[in-house]
Amino acid sequence: MTSRELTGLLSLDDSVPGRPLGQQASDFAWRMAFGAIGWPWLLRSLWGGRKADKRALMDRLGLAHDALPHLGSWKADTGFLRHIVTQIERLRPRIVVELGAGASTLVTAKALSLNGGGRLLSFDQHEGFVDATRHWLAENGLTVDIRHAPLEAEVEGWPGRWYDIDALPDQIDMIIIDGPPWSVHPLVRGAADSLFSRLAPGGVILLDDAARPGERLVARRWRKQWTDIDFALETDGTKGTLVGRRNINGLVPLAANDNGRTWRHAARAAGIAALIATGWIARGAMGEFPAAAQANSFVDEAAASHRNGLLRQAMRSQVESPKLDRAEIARSTGIQLPVMPSGWAVRDVQLYPTSDGPAVAVSLTAPGGEPVSLFAGKAETPAEAKPLLATRSGESIAYWEVGDVAFAVTGAVAPARALELAAQIAS
């Protein structure tokens, strides 16, 4: 939980009367061990981010600059709050469940009101704080279903005590995890996966304090146990945010399981060779070999547009449009497509609707005869022009960005070949 007021160095008392002494001793030992290891991250948690970033966030939401008078001292930082707003703007969720109320509750509720409504269910273990937060939201013209949920439950496979949560909707579009505090147990937030079976396809999970050692162990277990959810650690805030997204088509992302780890090792050498051969490293766009793409919805849309393009080409009744007018596309959509390299053939050009506005899908035949697609649209997350890899339905997808436009080359080719073809277009 987090407050709009200044908070002390120590968290509020979360002890439960009658808890067995053995469990109390075990929890204390874990806290001492992780406190000794993780004190740099805990100290960093006391800073809430730059005041300029907080003002920019308030302007984005149309809130007064003093709507969040104090951040830091265990509160959600501006980086985590910004992730909440960005995901709500992209996803427009109908049902959001929040674990640990406070600053994130205000930001989430306001973002929902600006993006199609949506219902927020928020839970916190301190009854007095629940009442205070409810009044705080009302002062800002917001109404939220915020409930008292004492730490009296246990979740099999996870230590510590968990929220005693009452009835939840069968399907949740977004889960925000900002509690319980680490002082209950360093791994206590792992029990949030008791809600993951309710996460809708394409739904999002946001875990605060994800750079801490305890949360890193939690994320590692989640990746193994929930192979249909793609998790990525974002480090743009002071404490790190773990972003998880359930695969839309139910397929297991290649980078999210043990097979994906094997694939990454096998692809590393071939991929780096392809990048060197095509000049991507030489042009300064590449640091180390990329992991799976983090722009999940864009990658899913790129894969879907590729399959739709192949389907159109197989149907006699569908008229293809092989004329690629880059100037007209730029004027109409704001998307500046690259010039197609010599030896590439354009088969079809179509506008493709997305949640972030129109995108352009170009069906191509590569010089080697491979049918591939170039998909271009609004960038979802900054990738600094670095090529990233993903797979969908056995197809390789090479993703990169130029300014505020994202690009993806998709085809039934080897990962190294996808990078090579993407590099040809990007250059």
TrEMBL record:
It holds the Pfam family Methyltransf_24. GO terms for molecular function: methyltransferase activity. One of its GO terms (biological process) is methylation. Keywords: Methyltransferase, Transferase. This is Class I SAM-dependent methyltransferase. InterPro entries: SAM-dependent_MTases_sf (IPR029063). The keyword Transferase applies. The keyword Methyltransferase applies.
